[in-house]
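Forum > Structural Biology > Help requests

Title: Can anyone predict the 3D structure of Large ribosomal subunit protein uL1?

Hi all, first post here. I have the sequence for Large ribosomal subunit protein uL1 but no way to get a structure on my laptop. I'd be grateful if someone could post the structure tokens.
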Amino acid sequence: MKRGKNYLESAKLVDRSVLYTPREALDLAIQTAKAKFDETIEVHVRLGVDPRHADQQVRGAVVLPHGTGKTVKVLVFAKGEKAKEAEAAGADYVGAEELVDKIQKENWFDYDVVVATPDMMGVVGRLGKILGPKGLMPNPKSGTVTFDVAKAIAEIKAGKVEYRVDKTAIVHVPIGKKSFGTDKLLDNFHTLMEAIIKAKPAAAKGQYIKSVTVSSTMGPGIKINPAKTLE
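Reply #1:
Sure, ran it for you. Structure tokens for Large ribosomal subunit protein uL1 below:
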């Protein structure tokens, strides 16, 4: 794979034989983010679980103390008073069956998170094959199926992120922007890792946190010592 000049320069700053502390790794992630835009800092955690088994799924959501630095558009499926509540809470789009039609017929995806009240899930369920593969399907575990739509919207806008183990047993989560600086990124990192550790399935055996890597959008991966993730 051919790499660009900036990537190759950044890679020289990282010793691939070293397992860094979280602070050292985030310092390096900032140094190696050489793009002209404000790069996102991402965390990739490989877990000792087998995602093929239902009792070893790891999924949830957590509000990062400093947010993600991204403006998030929220779509809410609700009716009546709950629709009014969603609009008052700052939802970008609110509706019911008419939004299902818009998504199905127009392939409409101008939103980042979908929230639904429980009574609307029968309607939203028709979108499973469209929203599911994009990770947009509302889910009670991530707090996006709820009657408390105002709280859900407030948390999402404040920087709530969803974490979910993929089929290769890795969790990928953005924790902020390069411009946040190390201290804020470290706070967000610790909050995320605490949530993932707390979500350990009872069926998971052996070492749970196998590896932790951070990187900027365009930068190289920087390995963190799994034993020091909360330091």
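The mean pLDDT is 93. The chain has two domains: 5-67+160-228, 74-157.
Shout if anything looks off.
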